[in-house]
Every structure is written in C-alpha cells, then in structure tokens.
From TrEMBL:
Signal peptide residue numbers: 1-17
Residue stretches of biased makeup (Low complexity): 219-246
Protein name, entry field: PEBP-like protein
Ranges for region Disordered: 218-246
Keywords: Signal
Organism from which the protein derives: Cylindrobasidium torrendii FP15055 ss-10
SUPFAM superfamilies: PEBP-like
Length: 269
C-alpha cells in the first residue's frame, strides 16, 4: 500500500531521467489511473514513448490537455529500455479513448490507427504506413469526468494481417474491440504506451478516486505504485456509453504533487 512517508522520502533521491525509471514511472501511472486493468490486463512496455503535440511540446504521462492542445498530429519518440531490447522495424500505432476511471468497456473509441509505421531517427514515421484511422483528437462528452486517451505502439511482425473491416485506409473514428483487434491481427508485443487526460466542461458524475502521480514523483511513485495494483477496480458498468469511449481521469488527477501526496496521506495514513 502507499505510504506517505515512503513517497516523501523517495521524492528527491529517485528523480532521474533514466529510462528504466521512466518505464517504472509509466507503469505506476497506468496502474494508478486504472488503465491497468480497465484497458490493459497487464502492461510491460519495452520502451518509453515521448509524445509531442504541436504547440504543447512533450507531454508527461497522464498530463491534462485541452481538446485543442491535443488536436494536432503528435510525434512519438521511442526510447528502448536498454540496448538489448530489439524493437523490430515495423510498428502499429493506436490511440484509444479509455473513458474515465472505472470504465472498462471492451469497445473503445479508436482515434488513431496506423499500420506499417517505421522508426526514423528514433521517431515514428508514417511515410510507408497505412493510415486506417487518421489521427483525430480527443472529444470527450461534455459533463463526463476526464477521459484517458492512450497512445500505444505495437511491434508489427510479418505475420500481421489486418482483420476484416480494418484493412483499408480512411476509416473514420468509431468504436471497436481493441483487445480483439490486437489478437486477430496477430500484432506483436507492446513497445510502449503513454496517455493524456482530456475533459470537456465540468464533470457532473464523479469517479472512483485515483491517486495522482506527478512527474516529479514518478520514480518515487513507481517504488510503491505496483503494490497498489491489486486494488480492485470497481469496474464501470458497461452501460451507457453514448460515445462508446472508455475514459478516465478523475477530478483527483490533479497534476500537483502536493495534491497527490496530500490525498495519499489522507487515504492511507
Ligand atoms: C532491458 O529491458 C527489458 C525491457 O524492460 C528487460 O526485460 C530486460 O531485462 C532489460 N535487460 C537488461 C540487460 O537490463
Ligand atoms: C504523416 O505524418 C506527418 C507528420 O510527420 C503528418 O503531418 C501527416 O498528417 C501524417 N499523415 C497521416 C495520413 O497521418
């Protein structure tokens, strides 16, 4: 369980730009935002993804963006965990709306799906890609808690075969069963993933509490974060998804470390 003391103590010593720590941090983020298990059953990235939005810059995992800020075509830099990781050469990029915390519908809204991507100077290139669904920025329903938009890169082995219905370019944004897609297309390992949260207006529903992970405390959080993974998500009913989108962030996904630490202290003291 989280211990406020442990977090506080580790804030300073563990701040580092080290990729291994960044990876541990993103894993902590995915657990604490409940993307694991709402969207992914497990999450074992081999690389850190650095997503950059025009006019915004590099985002940190879970960063809150406005719809406009996340509207431009993002670039994705891929940094392998270490030199022994073989990422392969062909990739699929996807962005899905994992709705708000606790929503775990199988069907999620697909905002981006590109097959046949390559790496150019460590950055995802679409120069030989097939853009099944062209990048379309977040548009969470008004009044809902912040949605979690997950950007993921998968290895695309030679055995990859686009499933029926997903084999031609220019499909619009719609819902699909992401898990099924991954299985049916025979995509390879997850290279990496990150996410941002976007909300439209004031939330009129509240969500299950999550702890927030500030970028400053990422590696510290990762020391304790995994131990909270057992927390059972009160899974959202698969009910009314007018948007069909899974979304996620809670009002508590505040970005300040003070809020996060205070909240954790309150919860777990
Ligand atoms: C390199 O990173 C991968 C993925 O995180 C990990 O499984 C592996 O143990 C690491 N190898 C070394 C030598 O650190
Ligand atoms: C391909 O990438 C460029 C940026 O490198 C972007 O401007 C363009 O919209 C992308 N094309 C598609 C079809 O996504």
């Amino acid at each position: 369980m989280f211990a406020l003391a442990a977090l506080s103590l580790t804030v300073l010593p563990f701040v580092s730009a080290d990729t291994a720590l960044d990876l541990a941090g993103i894993k902590a983020h995915f657990t604490q935002s409940k993307i694991v298990p709402d969207l992914f059953e497990s999450f074992n990235p081999e690389a850190v993804l650095t997503v950059n939005f025009p006019g915004v810059g590099d985002i940190t995992p879970g960063q809150t963006l406005t719809q406009a800020e996340a509207g431009g075509y993002p670039s994705i830099k891929v940094t392998a965990a270490n030199s022994s990781v073989d990422l392969g050469s062909t990739f699929t990029v996807a962005m899905v709306d994992a709705s708000y915390v606790g929503q775990d519908d199988d069907d999620v809204t697909r905002h981006w799906l590109m097959n046949g991507c390559t790496l150019s100077d460590g950055t995802i290139s679409n120069s030989s890609a097939t853009s099944i669904t062209e990048y379309g920025g977040p548009a969470p329903p008004e009044g809902e808690p912040a949605h979690r938009y997950v950007i993921a890169v998968y290895q695309q082995p030679d055995s990859f075969s686009a499933p029926e219905g997903f084999n031609q370019a220019n499909m619009g944004i719609s819902t699909f069963d992401f898990e099924d897609y991954l299985t049916n297309s025979k995509l390879g390992a997850l290279v990496g993933a990150t996410y941002m949260t976007v909300q439209t207006g004031e939330a009129t529903t509240s969500v299950e509490a999550t702890s927030s992970v500030d970028s400053q405390t990422l590696s510290a959080a990762s020391q304790t974060g995994s131990s909270s993974s057992g927390a059972s998500a009160t899974t959202g009913a698969s009910g009314s998804s007018s948007s069909g989108a899974p979304d996620g962030a809670s009002a508590l996904t505040a970005s300040s470390a003070a809020v996060a630490l205070g909240f954790l202290g309150f919860l777990f003291a």
